Amino acid sequence: MPYFKQPKHLQSLMLLQWPLSYLAMFWILQPFFIYLLFTSLWPLPVLYFVWFFLDWKTPEQGGRRSAWVRNWCAWTHIKDYFPITIQKTKDLSPEHNYLMGVHPHGLLTFGAFCNFCTEATGFSKIFPDITPHLATLSWFFKIPFVREYLMAKGICSVSQPAIDYLLSHGTGNLVGIVVGGVGEALQSVPNTTTLILRKRKGFVRTALQHGAHLVPTFTFGETEVYDQVLFHKDSWMHKFQSCFRSIFGFYFCVFYGRGFCQGSTGLLPYSLPIVTVVGEPLPLPKIEKPSQEMVEKYHTLYIDALCKLFDQHKTQYGCSEDQKLLFL
Fold this sequence. Notes:
Helix content is 37%, strand content 16%.
C-alpha cells in the first residue's frame, strides 16, 4: 500500500505529547484544588466547586466552546505527525442540522478528534457556518476541569438530552456520534473494516424526531496506527476487559505502536496517514414518533450510503479493491 509510507519527521514525536500534557494537567488540578481546601487559599476551590454545581447542566445545553482552544498549535502538530486530513464530498447547508455517524471508532479516534474538535484541518473553512460537536461519554463531564477542557473543544455529552438540545436549537449544528461506541475499539486492528452498526439504530430514530440529515463518514487509516493484542472471549483477560468497561464505560485495551527510536516498540502511534471522508447528507423527514419500520428503512439507507462512500474511496486510501465493510 504505497499511500501509507511512513513520513520522516521524528520531531513530531515530542510534539504529539503536548495535548496529553494538557489533559494530564487538568487531572492534576483536581487533587491540587482539594489540597488548597486546607490552606489559606481555600476560597478558590470553594468558589470553583460552587460554580461547578451551578453550571452542572451546561454540557447538556450546547456546552461552552472556545475558538482559542480549538486553534491551539498542539492540534496542528498532531495533524502533521500522521498526517490527518478531511475530505468533503458534498457541501453541508447551514439551513439544516445534521447527525453524523463517525466510523470506525479505532483506539483513540485520532481522525474525528483532529477534524471535528479542532481547527487543525480547517473544518470551518471547508464547511462554513457549520458548528461541529463530537459526542463522548457523559461521565467525562462530571469530572472537574476535564469538563471545561472538553466543552472548550466543542465536545458534547452523548446523552439524549444533550443531542436533542443541539438538534432543536438553531440550525447549522453537526453532531457526530461514534456509532460503534467503545465496543468497536476491540475490533480495531490493522487491515480490518469491522463496524458495530447492525443493531445500532437509536441515532436514526433521533435524526427522524428532529428531521436532521444523516451524514455518513469513514476515517481511513484510523485502525492502522496501533497494533492491538486480542484475547479470546473465554480468557480471564477478556473477562477483565468486560468488567473494566462495566465500571468505567470503556474497554481496557492492550495496544502498542512505535517508540522514540526508529524501529522500537512503544505507545506512540505509527505515523500513517489518516483521512476522514465526509459523505453526502441523507435527508430525513421530521417524525415526532417514528415507527420501527421507518427507523429500519432509514437505517438501511444509511448503511447503503456508508458502503457506497467506503467503496468509492477505499483504493485511494490503501484498501484493496475487494475489501468490504463487515457489520456486526
